[in-house]
Amino acid sequence: MEVTLRQIRYFVATAEIGQISLAAQHLNISQSAVTNAIQTLECCLNHPLFVRSAAGVTLTETGHYFLNHAYEVLRSLDDALNIPQTSSQTKGQINLVASYTVMGYFLPFHLQRLSQIYPNLRLKLYEAERREIETGLLAHHYDMAVVLTDNLTNPGIFSETLFRSERRLWLPARHPLLECLTLNLADLADEPFIMLAVDEAELSASRYWGEAGLSPNIMLQTSSIEAVRSMVANGMGISILSDLVYRPWSLEGKRIETRSLHQQAHPMSVGLAWCENIPFTPAMQAFRDYFHSVFLMPQQTVHRRPVRG
Fold this sequence. Notes:
Blueprint: H1 5-17, H2 20-27, H3 31-45, E1 50-53, E2 56-59, H4 61-81, E3 92-98, H5 100-105, H6 107-117, E4 121-127, H7 130-138, E5 144-147, E6 157-165, E7 167-172, H8 185-188, E8 192-196, H9 201-211, E9 217-222, H10 225-233, E10 239-242, E11 256-259, E12 268-275, H11 282-295, E13 302-304
Helix pairs in contact: 1-2, 1-3, 1-4, 2-3
């Protein structure tokens, strides 16, 4: 029996989400299509990939092994379908600054692609917090920034949002809240909450909790995303973080589940920023054009940030 890429994609979505029904919703297909794809794979391997339960599905040992190789297959296909067209004409240097989350969870892949497309484009990289990024852009220490655009406050900074990453509830496997059909912030108020404190995540959290008239029951505030991941996976508490930093497994190999909130936490915006008075060099334009080609959406806007009180 032949294995198809569609079956592999359905399997990966189910492994990451932990429920066949939610994976089907995410893929915008029928639940039976996902079920049939998984059953076909299990028949080909002659081993079960998942353990089924009322709470969802968890990977077997074979499932873990197959998932690692499935990721490799999909990454290889993506690379094969996106062979970059190199441009040796674009030359120059960009002093590029990024915030912690962007540098760690978003930029590396795109920097590698840029080096292939523009072999003569030089990037000098910096990592900084939002206030330092704004100050550095205005002082022309940095040419461009890749940042969480909703956090910017200075009116002299232009920003361009490339995409928005949904914030979802993170839960350990078999948590009672996984049984709920809908969840909102009121359902979480008494749960021990692990608060991330990088890229002003705590300020973003205070905004959407405040809008709901609630406060989280904070048991730990940490600057380590891996600490949040491990604490949640080990059943010490819950958290709300964006899909950009989500990984289904902790460093100890324990499962982290996610659920959407009926009362939406604001999504995290990622985009480009620059000082309004700086002229665009060919290198800067090439950098911007690359991200346009990857993320350009009809709703994309360029705007000056209002000052928050």
